Amino acid sequence: MSIHIEAEKGEIAETVLLPGDPLRAKWIADHFLENPKQYNNIRGMLGFTGTYNGKKVSVQGTGMGIPSTLIYCHELINEYGVKNLIRVGSAGSYMKKVKINDIVVAMAASSTSGINAARFPGANFAPTANFQLFTKAVNFAAREKINIHAGNILTSDAFYEDDAEDYKKWAKFGILCVEMETAGLYTVAAQYGVSALSLLTVSDSMVTGESLSSEEREKAFSEMIKIALNIL
Ligand SMILES: O=P(O)(O)O[C@H]1O[C@H](CO)[C@@H](O)[C@H]1O
Ligand SMILES: O=c1cc[nH]c(=O)[nH]1
């Protein structure tokens, strides 16, 4: 048991899917895992372990933003020996070609977070995806004819930006979409020598103003989950 996770040692798999929303963790466990067993309810941040095609896999909610996500990743890696961390999140599109329900595989994550600026004063750390997981995801999507975008994304500390036009500056530099965790995830994975990948489904568009409802957001992510579970 760690401070925020009440699982016994051995109850969590080496590969963990990480949605921000704990109810999405339950939905994934209920719909995709064989024999799912809940191992965490501290703070309602649900975690489950089951199998997928016979392979042990866990799914753990992280909450929203880098600080919350780092708590769960730190404990999963250091207290439970987790080796592969795969975020399955939602994101807001910054480009016209990145449409609602499209999947983005994050090669790298730019960020407005101060976490690495404080760690590496006067320098920039580049949080990047694990190459093997990234390649497997891209190849699986190609085989299954699932359309994906791959590239740089933005991990923001703010969901509600002051300036609704700010996204245009990031889009000019190739940023596909915005979310709130990946730069933290890629950094903590690098810090402890484990593998991480972020898969994102577009739930909102800054370009068109479209948006999925919270119910659709919770459940509309089947193709992304399929990719995550098939790169184990
Ligand atoms: O859907 P999740 O995984 O929570 O991800 C996105 O949704 C939340 C904001 O609504 C932030 O956590 C953002 O990164
Ligand atoms: O617009 C969005 C959608 C999901 N997540 C974000 O951080 N922003």
Automatic annotation (TrEMBL):
GO MF terms held by the record: purine-nucleoside phosphorylase activity
Keywords assigned: Glycosyltransferase, Transferase
EC number of this enzyme: 2.4.2.3
Record field: catalytic activity: uridine + phosphate = alpha-D-ribose 1-phosphate + uracil
Domain Nucleoside phosphorylase stretches: 16-226
Keyword Glycosyltransferase among record annotations: yes
Regions annotated as coiled coil: none
Gene3D superfamilies, per database record: Nucleoside phosphorylase domain
Family under the similarity heading: Belongs to the PNP/UDP phosphorylase family.
Name listed for the protein in its UniProt record: Uridine phosphorylase
Gene: deoD
